[in-house]
Amino acid sequence: MRKTFYPWLAAAAMLTLAGCAGMSSPGTADIDAPPAVTTDYIIAPGAVLNVFVWQHPDLSTTVPVRPDGKISTPLVEDMIAAGKTPTALARDMEAVLAKYIRQPTVNVIMDTASPSFQQQVRVVGQAANPQALAYSEGMTLLDVMIQVGGLGEFAAGNRAKLMRRTADGQAEVRLRLDALLNGGDMRQNIAIQPGDVIIIPEARF
Predict the structure, then answer these.
(1) CATH pick for 117-200 out of 1.10.3720.10, 3.30.460.80, 3.30.1330.100, 3.10.560.10
(2) Which long-range contacts (CB under 8 A, 24 or more apart) does 183-187 make?
(3) Structure pTM?
């Protein structure tokens, strides 16, 4: 009897524990845990980065993120930085440097952060060089178009529009960029506000 009691008791205890583990506490069965929140900074055009390559001071440098979102450092040319965290960028740079040095270790540290989206003016679509620009006091539509190189070859400038956040939501402003840039109509040169998004569509053929 003593030989069979303890194995039976152990098996019963295991079944009891398994049953308890499968039960949910009252009122918590349908509650999902909140998603993890990441605090990693996302690199954007205009940021200034300190790039350190361990034991290779000749490869370490301070570099700005260009308007096209790329950086160039010794042995690493035209690497996309915008949209990545500093850690992700460091790993990508290590992959390139591994072609030239053994087991490279790269650290990327933010020196100067780029303006937040709320302090940027974004131009998308058929501009010659669509990009996000840092807002400056007194900026006008003409200032923006000069910085993006004007209209692209297939732009429908007079069908462009500006999207602006307001207290009531979002407002849409029609733009006549052809009239401004090619016709010299300065009435179209409206004031720009931080956070504005200028959308330039493609011409219909």
Answers:
(1) 3.10.560.10
(2) 186/142
(3) 0.47
